[in-house]
Structures are given as structure tokens and as C-alpha cells.
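Service request form, structural biology core

Requester: graduate student, group of Dr. S.
Request type: structure prediction, single chain
Budget code: on file
Notes: please return the result as C-alpha cells.

Sequence provided:
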Amino acid sequence: MHHVEAEGPSLQSTDHPEERIELNGTFLVRPEWGWNRGDPFRGSADTHRYQSQEAKPSGESGARMELVLDGNNLLPFHFLRTGDRMGRAVVKIQRDDGATGTGFLVAPDVLLTNCHVLPCREVAASAVALANYEVSPPNDPAGRPAVSPLDPVSLFVTNADLDFTFCGVGGLAYLGSVPLDRERMHVATDETVTIIQHPRGRPKEIALRDNRVIKTDGVVVQYSCDTEPGSSGSPVFNNQWKPIAIHHASVLTDSSEGWRIAANSRARYLNEGIRLSAIALWLDTAEAESPAHQQQVARLIALFSGFGRIGVDLTSGEPDPLPPAVSQTPTSLDALIERKIRDILTPVVDKILADAREGRPA
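Core staff response, request fulfilled:
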């Protein structure tokens, strides 16, 4: 936005210079909460009244105060720091056959990617994870580049229908991890998403613009955020950096907001991710192949925070017995009650949103 000088007296011309402050060259009335010059950080941000300067009458030309145009895209500055922290856990997956994908650590020794990136233990056993594969890696201990072999023997859980694979990996604990959440209400149509990825195997990139959610249901979320081959397995974050999905494909859509890949084509596409809440539900109901597999699934279930886990007996009010890896997670009565309420309300909200998208009356 162009910077302009607002009309008005200078600070030197007023009888009470402390009653007016200058911000970006524009004189504004003093904030209602008062400004303590000895401690300028005091005061609640919610009570700032910088916009209390009177706007010019309609039709009058000249300088005006800064405005929010076409939706507010302002974010707190720590958005960048949080994104950097989450992005450290995103790695490039290099397969032995030359194919590449993206994955992200969800525990110090577990990564998540797509099933079509790591479809079986044999492929995973010959693949490696490249950490901090960037144009300019951070110059700190957590920014150290590394190549680590995957370890499907320690953990390997996959499902082709939901296109996900959890796989063990070693030596990358210093990267941190992306916390998983089974909550289904972290994203809605018209919200924005951010994807950290390795498109076409390139150094790590991020899609920040033109990233609106177009469609969502209980299994997938579809968005206009850019991806390329090699982005498969990337984490999809909402605007609060909560992971909501794992990107997996570009899909045909009947939405007018999809993109044509050719000017003369009628086919339109959106990018699509599998919702983490759907993956959590699959884990809740998965049939174990063996006792070892059951323990691996139980460990993955324990990685998901949030409410809505299947297995609560509504008549007794007590959770069903869980494997040791899960039962060690503390559960309070308040959390159990909130979980039951959320389980009841979520399908109702999902139906209301679906009806609204289809134009059906509530």
C-alpha cells in the first residue's frame, strides 16, 4: 500500500504533544489504553484504537489511513518462526529407483508419507530420508543436513485406500516433529492452507499464496495450493500451523474453481490431501496382522492428540481397554465428557456444512 502523509498539525504545534502520536508518518489520536513511555509493551493489544482517526467524508480526495483490502491477510510475526520449526521436520524421500517424495517426522523415529511413495517394506528398506535439503540450510544444530536410511523393520504401517505410510527412521530426532491431531474441525471451506514440500525433488519449498480450501469432507480436503510431482507426502497445515492432512494427488473436480491444465480443456483439477482425522479413525479400527503390528498401531494411535477416538462405551462412561502404549496416556473426566460431546456434534456440523455447500436448506 502506498505510504502517504496525513494532513494535520505537527507534534510541535499542539499544546499537548503526548496526546498525539505519529505512526508511519500519519498522526493518530492517542491510544485509549494510554502509552507508558517507560514500558511501551504494556497495554492490551485488544484495546488499541489506532483506527479511531476520523476518515475523510465520502467523495473527498486526498490522504487516507491504511485499510484492510479484500480480506485481512495479516498474520502475527511468530507465524514465520512456527513455520520454520514445523518445516525442519519435513524431509525429502529418495527411493532406490530414483523416484522422490516428501515425508515428515511425527515422532523422533517415525515419519509419515504416502503409500504410493513407500508402498511396501521392500521399497522402504532401500530408501533414505534427506534432512534439511534446502538451498540455504539454517546455520544451527537443527539445520544440519543429513541422510538417514529408513527402518521399516522397527515400524511400518500402511494403507493404500487412504494413501498413507508410517515408517521408522533413525538419526533425525534433532529435527523435531510435527504433532498429530485427530480433530476434524481444524479446517473449513475458504480457509487457507500451507504446504511445505520437495516438488520434483528440489530443495525444500513452501506454498504460501493462492492456497484456499475449496472442498472438504470427512476424508479429504481439496485446495488450490500449488504442488508438483515429488510433493506427495507433504504436510498440509491450516493457518495456525496445525497439520490437517497429508497431500497426495491432483484430482478431477466439478468445481468451477478448479484449474484447467490446458486452455482448450474442460477438465478442471484441484489438489487433494487425506485428512489426518481419517487416518486416525482407520488406526482406531485397524485389524492387526500380528501382535507386533498391533503394538505399532497402538503406538501410532498414541501420537494423535485431540478428541474423538473410537472405543468409548457411552453406557459405562469408561474407555474400552487399550494396549499399554495407549493406556499410559492420561485421560481426565472433563476430557472424556468433551470428547463425547464432540463425537455427537461433529457429524451434525459436517452435515450442516455439506448442506450449505450443496445449497440445501438446513
